[in-house]
Amino acid sequence: MLVVDDDTTVRDVVRRYLEHAGYEVELAGDGETALRLMAAREPDIVVLDLMLPGIDGLEVCRRVRERGSTPVVMLTALGEEEDRIAGLQIGADDYVTKPFSPRELALRVSSVLRRANKAYEPRVVRDGDLVLDVAAHTATLDGTPLQLTTREFDLLAFFIANAGRAFGRAELLERVWGWQFGDQSTVTVHVRRLREKIEKDPAKPMRLSTVWGVGYRYDRCSID
């Protein structure tokens, strides 16, 4: 994994804790170095501080997402809600706020990696022109590949598997993210991103509807 933070102490503490947990860790102190290391060797996951000199963390995350689906866990300062939401909007999979427990970070990393490499039952899920291959972890809309993050794919697969049922944000956090506690705006951001990718008009969603006072519901566009 690649840990990107301009604070030497944070990098060293995170590296030692994650190596003790069994991970191979590379370090970068700025965005430019991080991108160079990723170009030379694609990491399995990136732990990324948003406040970096030069190329900031949001831009690094954006470029990671342009390259593919490498999971990203953001490090943000407590109270930087706008930056956290911005990171989720451009495709980060999870976040940890500073100051953080190294043990919590390791658990978050493990959770994201587990979901990214989840062994789905080989099957294809179809809803009209929307097709999810849960074995290959790919999705297409009208034959065009969708660029979904791991979290977005998991959320969409969960919704389709439970079409017609409304879920609250807290329940989605627990059942898709595996969190019993967390910032529920994370769900809102991911639903908005999914609508931008699967709806013809995100402002008037036909598939992923808001159920006022409850949460969200997926409605199939085709009849099985």
TrEMBL record:
Domain Response regulatory: 1-113
UniProt keyword annotation of Phosphoprotein present: yes
Sites of 4-aspartylphosphate modification: D49
Family annotation (InterPro entries): CheY-like_superfamily (IPR011006), OmpR/PhoB-type_DNA-bd (IPR001867), Sig_transdc_resp-reg_receiver (IPR001789), WalR-like (IPR039420), WH-like_DNA-bd_sf (IPR036388)
GO MF, one annotated term: phosphorelay response regulator activity
One of the GO BP terms on file: regulation of DNA-templated transcription
DNA-binding region: 122-220
Every OmpR/PhoB-type domain range: 122-220
Keyword Transcription annotated: yes
GO cellular component terms listed in the entry, alphabetical order: cytosol; protein-DNA complex
Transmembrane segment boundaries: none
Pfam family, one: Trans_reg_C
Keywords: DNA-binding, Phosphoprotein, Transcription, Transcription regulation, Two-component regulatory system
Entry protein name: DNA-binding response OmpR family regulator
